[in-house]
Design brief:
Length: about 400
């Protein structure tokens, strides 16, 4: 027998109340993530299992989280994991981990499209700028296409339902763009040469943001780049005169100035988006200064083994060698990763990501401040974030 009108109305009301409770309690009903290895929670690992894509983040990666390689390029959790916990959400599954599952439930509290090694601009452009490089075909445009393809699995084929879902989601746009610079720099391009790529990288990020807003996005978090002049990988491979190092941190000044140039241009463009879309919340996440506070005072934050030496590496002053990856037989692993800022010379430790996440989403390193927009849920509501499997 067909349900009565009153039954249909009651069912509809319950759905509205349930979704509204999710949105109110956790601020956002899901996280939609794009980016590279800073945010990838397993996509590259899944891609490598079905293709000839190389996946470098094998054990000891993941040793501090479930004692296994989960696809995260760190010893444990990433910023996105701590953000999910902050919002009372489960860990956000990798797209390729749930693709084809046929279960809308698997998608509804978030999907992560980030892929380690990916770029903002098209992979062919980056390959052309860095001869001899093979760049994974998972650029920001490709990730956005995956998102569009998966929308029917998330919200059906109704445009209004999908706009509602996207509007209730927190969009995390990266970090993305770092590899557009890292790859040509690693092939010998000068900082001045790579500086000319910044406008195109920024325009690509901005174009993707605008497209997501057109699709219904109401809240987006857009991170800037990290201070790459403090990374053991660059400190090992870039030799500078004494005056090229910051006397307070030991970081490479010119590379950090490059990161700041990217971040300043990004913020200028984000201000333009805010002016054109006053009803959309566009949040700049200052990864640069959230990290720099640690590099200035590592001991104060518990990083007693220094900020510039990798936990997992192959000797030298920064324990990094570009020809020996963490996990190779020639590398050594530190005993206490939580006392190191850098995990492998390129990526940070779980302890560092946790502190940066707290500084961003409970502290002053977002504009506007995230904590004023989304107060931390009360403990009585509980959280499933860090106990959930991926």
């Amino acid at each position: 027998m067909a349900p009565s009108t009153s039954s249909r109305l009651l069912a509809g009301l319950l759905v509205v109340l349930w979704s509204g409770r999710l949105y109110a309690n956790g601020c956002y009903s899901s996280i939609i993530s794009f980016g590279d290895s800073i945010a990838d929670t397993g996509n590259l690992k899944h891609m490598a299992s079905i293709s000839d894509v190389f996946f470098p983040c094998v054990p000891p990666y993941g040793e501090s989280f479930n004692h296994q390689s989960t696809g995260r390029c760190s010893n444990g959790r990433l910023i996105i994991d701590f953000l999910a916990e902050r919002l009372g959400l489960p860990l956000i599954p990798a797209y390729f981990g749930i693709k084809g599952s046929g279960s809308a439930v698997a998608f509804r509290q978030g999907v992560n499209y980030a892929v380690s090694g990916s770029t903002a601009t098209d992979s062919s452009l980056v390959e052309a700028s860095a001869s001899g490089s093979v760049v994974i075909n998972a650029s920001l445009g490709v990730q956005l296409a995956w998102f569009k393809q998966s929308l029917p699995s998330i919200c059906g084929n109704t445009t209004s339902d999908c706009r509602d879902f996207i509007g209730r989601s927190l969009i995390l746009m990266g970090e993305i763009g770092g590899n557009d610079y890292n790859i040509p720099l690693s092939k010998g391009k000068s900082i001045d040469d790579v500086r000319s790529y910044v406008p195109l990288v920024i325009d690509t990020i901005i174009s993707t943001i605008n497209e997501l807003i057109d699709m219904g996005a109401q809240t987006l978090v857009i991170p800037g780049n990290f201070p790459i002049g403090c990374f053991p990988s660059y400190l090992t491979t870039v030799v500078s005169e004494k005056e090229g190092y910051d006397p307070l941190t030991g970081c490479l000044i010119k590379l950090n100035e490059f990161s700041e140039y990217h971040n300043q241009m990004l913020q200028t463009k984000l201000n333009q988006i805010r002016e054109l879309n006053p009803n959309v919340v566009v949040i700049y996440a200052d990864y640069y200064n959230a990290a720099m506070q640690i590099y200035y005072s590592p001991d104060e934050y518990g990083f007693t083994n220094g900020a510039l030496k990798a936990c997992c590496g192959c000797g030298g002053p920064y324990n990094y060698n570009a020809f020996a990856r963490c996990g190779d037989a020639s590398t050594t692993l530190c005993d206490e990763p939580d006392k190191y800022v850098s995990w492998d010379g390129v990526h940070l430790t779980e302890a560092t990501y946790k502190l940066i996440s707290k500084s961003l989403f409970q502290g002053p390193y977002t504009t506007p401040e995230f904590s004023s927009l989304c107060p931390r849920p009360s403990t009585s509501q509980g959280t499933v974030g860090l106990s959930s499997s991926i």
